[in-house]
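Note to self: keep these together.
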Amino acid sequence: MFTGSLTADLLLGDVHSLKEKRAVVKPIVAELRRRFAVAAAEVGDQDLHRRVQVGVATVAGEAAQVTDVLDACERLLADRPEVTLLATHRQLISSTDS
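Structure:
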């Protein structure tokens, strides 16, 4: 079994309040969950209105499957016109890792 996580640092476009930020981030997180059956949430920079960190996690029997899902999630984030993908961090853990 393999567990993978992706943390994406995003810059939001024309957002001037935390309320506007939620209106942008909430649909992105919902789409990640719906399209890829992953766990996804806003995990950082909650107090900043133009920055957000989105975390994604998935589990699969093969490392390649985890990588494919995380690749697709990253592409979705990169293709969203209302955000700019600044950086990502990935982690892949095997159930045999000690």
